[in-house]
Automatic annotation (TrEMBL):
InterPro entries: Cys/Met-Metab_PyrdxlP-dep_enz, O-succ-hSer_sulfhydrylase, PyrdxlP-dep_Trfase, PyrdxlP-dep_Trfase_major, PyrdxlP-dep_Trfase_small
Role noted for this protein: Catalyzes the formation of L-homocysteine from O-succinyl-L-homoserine (OSHS) and hydrogen sulfide.
N6-(pyridoxal phosphate)lysine modifications at: 208
Organism for this UniProt entry: Acidiphilium iwatense
EC number(s) on file: 2.5.1.-
Family: Belongs to the trans-sulfuration enzymes family. MetZ subfamily.
Entry protein name: O-succinylhomoserine sulfhydrylase
Pathway connected to this protein: Amino-acid biosynthesis; L-methionine biosynthesis via de novo pathway; L-homocysteine from O-succinyl-L-homoserine: step 1/1
Subunit structure: Homotetramer.
Length: 394
């Protein structure tokens, strides 16, 4: 394992590596479901927890361990467990911690499936859930004036790139007796490290920037060793949201280039946001580091760059949005994000269709809103494509 003193880009290449006796340079792919024991005594000692020995890939696997070690290093977390998807990570983090009678407070602007867990799944088990507007600290204070067990936030949020004050909300969560869980997908650990602001648990979809090339699904939960070992691990071990070693290996190798990719995409996103901001047909362009973003000061205080997504609103609603999207040639229409290929999404008719018009209005999502995930193409080609598509609007 690389030393803590190494910088993030170095950790992404080296941290967590476990070399086998063959002394391979690249990380090995241990595509095995089970492991063998020298004798019955070793098996017994393993199951008693007296010795460290891999047992079964649902519980742990060397390739998965390498991914977990690398993610823990880059996050500055004590421990990590990788999962099959980002949603498996969010679900395991919440359900392993909660029980009937508990109370959860969450920011309203959550990824669709996270919203479903809080609004629909948890209440089925007798867990009280409350949503608040993430940017409204008075609303957080009011919601957290009662004993609470878990707080879930996402910042920047999907798709409106709202920023939540990590330090303030983590402090309020702790005063209410809750752990603070942060979905850090949009920022990545390179741009924002929630643990430094007091978060207890950080969750990721590794499907996004970590793989970064649109190949596999994956997720991760990071936090203190005691919580990961004693709260999360028994849940994962016995319910089975484990990541395939193959997918873990893809993500592990994806991480090696993540700093290069995220840095490039952030620069392009900032350039594109500035380009779009003044243009005809663009009602507004949102980007966390632009001075006209309502929370740009907060974004700059807790993030190192503005991220790889730009959200903008076209005048003329759905009709304009669809005509614009259909006129794009290079940029694809897809609901994924954090990919090497640039993609646009129309949240009102796809990712945020199910939450309904009223909730969309509350979140600021209009029929003209477009979410743009900026990829690794030459930024001049992306701007040409955007301009050509805007020209179709007249
Ligand atoms: C994609 C995403 C998830 C879910 O991850 P999957 O890997 O698709 O299960 C959760 N939160 C955010 C913010 C996401 O973008």
């Amino acid at each position: 394992m690389s030393k803590r003193t190494h910088r993030p880009a170095t950790q992404l290449v080296h941290a967590g590596q476990i070399r086998s006796d063959f002394a391979e340079n690249a990380e090995a792919l241990f595509l095995t479901s089970g492991f063998v024991y020298d004798d019955a005594e070793q098996a017994e000692a393993t199951f008693k927890g007296e010795i460290a020995h891999y047992q079964y890939s649902r519980f742990g696997n060397p390739t998965v361990s390498m991914l977990e070690g690398r993610l823990a290093a880059i996050e500055g977390a004590e421990a990590c467990r990788a999962t099959a998807t980002g949603m498996a990570a969010v679900h395991a983090a919440m359900l392993s911690h909660l029980k009937t009678g508990d109370r959860v407070v969450a920011s309203r602007a959550l990824f669709g499936s996270c919203h479903w867990i809080v609004s629909t799944l948890l209440p089925r088990f007798g867990i009280e859930t409350v949503f608040v507007d993430g940017g409204d600290l008075d609303a957080w204070r009011a919601a957290l004036s009662r004993r609470t067990d878990l707080v879930l936030i996402e910042t920047p949020s999907n798709p409106m790139l709202d920023i939540i004050d990590l330090r303030a909300v983590a402090d309020l969560a702790h005063q209410a007796g809750a752990i603070a869980v942060v979905d850090n997908v949009f920022a990545t650990p390179l741009l924002q490290r929630p643990i430094e602001f007091g978060a207890d648990v950080v969750v990721y979809s590794a499907t996004k920037h970590m793989d970064g090339q649109g190949r596999v699904l994956g997720g991760a939960v990071l936090g203190r060793k005691d919580w990961i070992d004693n709260t999360l691990q028994p849940f994962i071990r016995n319910t089975g949201p484990s990541i395939s070693p193959f997918n873990a290996w893809i993500v592990l190798k994806g991480l090696e280039t993540m700093a290069l990719r995220v840095d490039h995409a952030c620069r392009s996103a900032a350039t594109i946001a500035d380009h779009l901001a003044g243009k005809r047909h663009i009602a507004r362009a949102l980007y966390p580091f632009r001075a006209d973003h309502p929370q740009s000061a907060l974004a700059r205080a807790q993030m190192l760059a503005g991220g790889t997504l730009v959200t903008f609103e076209l005048e003329g609603g759905k009709d304009s949005a669809f005509r614009f999207m259909n006129a794009l040639d290079l940029i694809v229409i897809s609901n994924n994000l954090g990919d090497s290929k640039s993609m646009v999404t129309h949240p009102a008719t796809t990712t945020h269709m199910r939450i309904g018009a009223e909730e969309r209005a509350r979140l600021g999502i209009t029929d003209g809103t477009i979410r743009f995930s900026v990829g690794l193409e030459d930024v001049a080609d992306l701007i040409d494509d955007l301009d050509n598509a805007l020209a179709v609007l007249g």
